[in-house]
Amino acid sequence: MRPTSYLSPFNNIPEVTSGISFSNDLTLSDCTLRDGEQQAGVVFTKEDKIAIAKLLDEMRIPEIEAGMPCNSQEDADAIAEITRLCKNSRITACVRGLERDFDLAADIGVWGVTISLPIGILQRKYKLKWDDDTYIRNMYHLTEYAKKKGLYVNLSPYDTTRAEPAFLDRVMTEAVRCGTIDRVRLVDTVGSANPEAIRYLARRIKGILGDKVWLEVHCHNDFGLAVASALAGAMGGAEVVSTTINGLGERSGNTSTEELLLALKLLYGKDLGIDLTRLTDVSNLVEKLSNTPLQKHKPVVGRHSFSHESGMVVAGVLEEPFVAEAYAPELVGAHREILIGKKSGAKSLEAKLNENGIHLPEEAVRELLTDVKNQALAVKRSLTDDEFFDLVRKYQ
C-alpha cells in the first residue's frame, strides 16, 4: 500500500521529540458556528448552521460550540435543532454572565456552556468593571448556577494572555476550590502571545488546575501563529484545542481546524479519530455559507494546495508526487492538479495531452508551449482546460 505522506526525518530525532508530549485525553472543540460567525461580515442562517454542524458531526468532531442562544430566537432554535440532530458531537453554547443565558441554554438541551468572563486588564477595566473580589464572587455564583442546571461548565476568562499574573493564579486556584468548573479556557483574544508564552501559560495554569479541571486553549491568528500557539498550548498540557474551519473568526481569525488536525496527525503522530477525508468538503461548505473566499494557497484545503505549474516541479511530480508534496491530497479529500501556464514545461503539456488521448509530434509540443506561455502572459494566470485545448486544436 502506497504511503500517504513523506515527511522530514528530523521530526523524530531525540533532540526534537524529547520536549514534546500531549495529553492522552487531547480532543478538539470546533467553534466555527460561534467565533467563526463573529468574523466581521459573516452571517449564518439557521439552515447554514445546521448544515455545517451535521457535516462536523459526520466527521466525528468531538465537540461543537454551536453559538450564543441569547443572540436571537433563530440562533436558539438552530442550537436546539443541532443538539437534537448531532449523534457524535457534544454540543455547547457560549453564554454571558447572566442567569437567563444559562436558563436558555439548559432549556434547549445543550451538553455544556462556555461562560465568557473576561480577565484581561483592559477588559476588566473598560468592559466588566469588577474588582478582584467581585470577579471571584460572581465566578462562584455563575458556575454554581450552571451546575444546578445540569450543564458541563467551561469557564472562559478571555484575554487570558493579558491578565495580571497574580490575579490569574488566584482565579485558577479558586476555579479548583469551588468544585463547579469542569474546564478553563486559556484565550489569546487578540493573538498577542507568542507560542512559547502560550506553552508557558498552559503549563503554569495546569500546574494549578491539576487533573481535576481540564484546560482548553483558544488562539487568534493576528500574527499568523494561531496553529503554532495552539500546538504549543497542547504541548503545555491543555486537553482541549479550540478551532474553526478555514480559520474563520474575529479580525484575522482563529486556529484553523484543518491545519491543526493535519499537523497533529502527520507531524506529531496524534490522531484524534476525526475523518480527515471530509476536510475539503466542510471547508468548501463554510467558504460558501460564510461568503468568505479562501486564499487559493490556503494550507490543507486551498484550491492550489496540490496544484503544480512549474515545469521543473511537474517533471518530478509526474515521477513521484512526494518530490513536491508532504502528504497525499486524498488524505483530506482533495486531488492533485497539473496547471498549464507561463511556467509550464514540455512534460506538463505531454502529460495533459496524454490524459486526454492526444499525441503531438515533439516539434508541435514545443510550438504549443510557446503559445501557452504567450496566452498565460496575456491573461496573467494559468489557462483553463478550454483555453488550453483551443490552442491544441491548431496542431491537430
Keywords:
396 residues, alpha/beta, TIM Barrel, 8-stranded parallel beta barrel, 44% helix, 11% strand, elongated
Describe the model.
The protein is α/β, with parallel strands linked by helices and 396 residues long. It is built from 16 helices and ten strands. The protein has two domains: 266 residues, Aldolase class I (TIM Barrel, Alpha-Beta Barrel); 89 residues, no CATH class. An eight-stranded parallel barrel has the order 1-2-3-4-5-6-7-8, surrounded by six helices. It has a two-stranded parallel sheet with strand order 9-10. Helix 4 links the parallel strand 2 and strand 3. The two termini are 39 Å apart. This is Pyruvate carboxyltransferase domain-containing protein.
Q: Kindly identify the CATH topology of the largest domain.
A: TIM Barrel
Count, helices:
16
Number of domains: 2
DSSP E strands, number = 10
